[in-house]
Amino acid sequence: MRQKLVAGNWKMNGSKASIKALLDGIKQGIGDVQSAEVAVCPPFVYLGEVESQLQGTPIVWGAQNLSTEEKGAFTGEIAASMINDFGCKYVIVGHSERRSLYGEDDALVAKKYRVARAAGLRPILCIGETLEEREKEVTNEVVARQIAAVIDLEGVAALADGVIAYEPVWAIGTGKTASPEQAQEVHKFIREQIAASDAEVARKVQILYGGSMNAGNAVELLAQEDIDGGLIGGASLKAEDFLTICRAAG
Ligand code: 13P
Questions:
Q1: What is the pTM of this model?
Q2: Does the Cβ of 231 fall within 6 Å of ligand 1?
C-alpha cells in the first residue's frame, strides 16, 4: 500500500500574519489525519517561519522551486543546500507555471530533479497537458515525454526518490477539475509507462493529482486506485478546506 501525500502549494501567496494563522489552524486539526503525510510548500522567504512553527509536528514542508546551480553569482536564485538548511523534505520541480511563465523545459526540469535528489530532497515532479494538447488527444504522449526526460537523465530508479504530480494545466486554478475517471486514466497510464522500465518502481511511486482539488471533490479523486494524494493550490490556503482534503486521504 502506498502512503498518501497531501501537499499544499501556496504559490506566491501569504504574509507572516496569514501564514501564522494558517499553520495554527492546520496544526490544530492535524490530529484527525490518520495515515496520510501532510506537507506545505510556502514561498522561499517564509521557509524559516514555517520551519520554526512546524518543527516537532507531523507536518513536513518543502520549497516550490530550486536552482540547478550549487552556489555563486546567480542573483535571485535559491540553491538546494539552502532549501536543505531550512529542513525541507520536498521541493516542487517543473510546475506548469514554471514551465509556461518562466520557460522551463523538460531538460531543465530533469536537471532540477537531479540536483534536488543529489541534495537528499524529494522532488515533486509536476507533469500534465494543456487544454490544447488534451483536445488534440496527445495527453499520453505529453506526460510520457515529461517523465522520459527524467528517466533518460537519471535512470528509472530515480523516480523512487521522488513523487510525481499529474496536474492537467487546464484544471489548475480554473475550478475545472479532471473527473475522477479522467484523472485515474492518466495516472494509470503514467504507472504503466514507468512499469515498462521497472515494475517495482512503478508499484511504489506516489502519483498525486493536482488541479482544482478541493474539500468537495477530494474523496472521489482520492478513491481512485492510482491516485496517491494531491498537490493543492487554492484550497491549501484555507486551513479547514486543506484539512478536509487531508482527512479524505486517510
Ligand atoms: P489549484 O488547486 O489552485 O488548481 O492549483 C493546483 C496546483 O497548481 C498545485 O500545484
A1: 0.98
A2: yes
